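[Structure tokenization] protein backbone as discrete codes
[Encoding] learned vocabulary of local backbone shapes
[Protein] chain in single-letter code, fold in tokens
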Amino acid sequence: MQIHTDGSAYKNPGHISGCAAFARYPEHLNREDELIVDFGCPKSTNQRMELMPCVEGLKWVRDNVPWPGVTCVLVITDSEYVQRFVGLAPTWKRSGWRNRQGQPIANHDLWMTCSRPVRRRGSEWSSCGRRERNQRSQSAWTKRRKRLHNVAAVS
């Protein structure tokens, strides 16, 4: 099972923003892709909008499992922010959602929510990788994610 996510804020931070996530089922389930979430906000940040569809996608997985033969959920994101910090969520939790300097972690509300389903469902995180970021025009999945979150931002 793959969850494709994307989000952005125009004129980051604090302007209109949007995010989207959709599920791509394994071929053996013979199901069409399913939109999980797409919405816009009048004001947000790039980081929140990149993390929000990951959180919503994992909540959706938690609420909709099981699927026959699906043992892993792969969250696909092109967000360097999410890729870079997802592994730190357990450390932040142990430190009361504070960094080494004792400051609150940005977006800790989303990281808290995100860390629960990752642990409980054995989800796996993955990046879209350099190949996709460098060849965005060739990726139908990237185009679809971008279109969904752009439409959500202005809706």
